[in-house]
Amino acid sequence: MSTFKSYFSKNNTIVAKDSVNTARNPITELFYGKEPTTSCKYTGLSGDSCGGRTGYTLDNSGKFSRFIFDVNLDDVISKVNNGCINLSGGTGATHTLKMTNTSMFDQSLLNDKLVDGKRRASSFTLLLFRSSGITWDEGVGYDYQQYGGRFEPEFDESFGERPSNWYSATTLTPWTTQGVYDNQDNSTFTVVNSQNFDQGNENISMDITNEINDRLTGGTPNTGITYGIAYTGTLENLTGLSESYSVGFFTRHTQTFYEPYLETSYDDYIADDRERFYLNKTNKIFLYTNTEGTPKNLDSLPQVTIYDCDDAVYSSMTATNLTCGVYYVEFAVTGSTYGTPSIFTDTWSSMVMNSNKLTNVSNEFTLLAADDYYQIGPEDQLPKEYGYSVNGIKMDEKLVAGETRKVFVSVRVPYTVNQSILIDGLKYRMYVRQGNTEVETHPWANVNRTYNHNYFLLNTEDMIPNEYFIDIKANSNQEVNIYRNIIKFQVVSQI
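and the corresponding structure tokens:
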């Protein structure tokens, strides 16, 4: 599996019945609860006044906030269009919303202690909702301040009332529904998913696969989209509370590594059995299509005919598209008809690229004995210890964001100088260091195995400038070994 991150294109925290804009704040504070003794509600009527603010009136109901955002899907759409992400092939693609809770960085929020008139929220549910049809602006406000239970943003020099806010999407466009959605009427709004928070210090991790795939395939428009995170209507509508309860998450304006994102995971793992095609086992053989060295899909799926060692047709099938420029067929040769080793031929036909019909391609693979694969016997297999080295990127190399490297993992046979081998079960991961904490940016993923090398693609287009580390993990006969800091490199901004 590979992962790709899509970051937020805009975000804002809006406050119920208030025109304040806090879009530039590095943290979104989602709160509910305490009824302020004095609060000003915007009406827009010239005759109304509250605290010297024209167009406002006194409001004694409770306060709560919502976080709204949109995600830039341009790069994901591009990967889908060029075939690198295959929504229908393999296991398809999954999409998970990720936001980091700020409580781990604020010791005062590690319990139920009252801090600045607020308590840490716990035992609650957050909803992810979607509204469409209105384009909105992020805004330039930063924060509001709470004084003795009163929301009085006029005392805050970073206060801003320009849209977006509770009432308006842009200066000239109000929301169809104030606050973007009606927590009492889900018939006109889509609740995409929800997440329960036990302690209140959990990170947001919501599966929104169906929602995003619907956008990628044209089921939902990609313009005028507003996503929002809110407490359930029951919590938002609570009255009579003596305190305010809050939870915080990093926004896209954080100066840390914890910028929120949409994580797209998709199956592009290559496990080519052309050099290890065993009898009585399901195997895969691959074909790679390129234009001037760049992977590119064919116009349609090719046909594959398998010929046995007597040139008789063993099987015919349609290939599967795994990722851009990568096709495979999966089948088994069973029974005792064929001796081993035997040479089979795979012929790929019906190949068209850019409306140009291409010539057929024939390759060979050798049928090997099943006993060589299954290794059944009285002896317990001992773990194999290999030596590992990485090529394609240098230690401490600086990569400009947007570069892609093909990183080869060489596996050396023990007690040899340069004898290498291809192995299964090889994985890699990437992470950064924030102080004494390792923050995983790319979870453990399989290292591809073609017929001639192990490799993975290092794509920096979605990587935040920072210093990165790569670990390698190998599994051999029930023993798992992790090789730390195999390579270290930096991603630097194009600017």
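(Above: one complete record from the training split.) The chain is about 5% helix and 45% strand.
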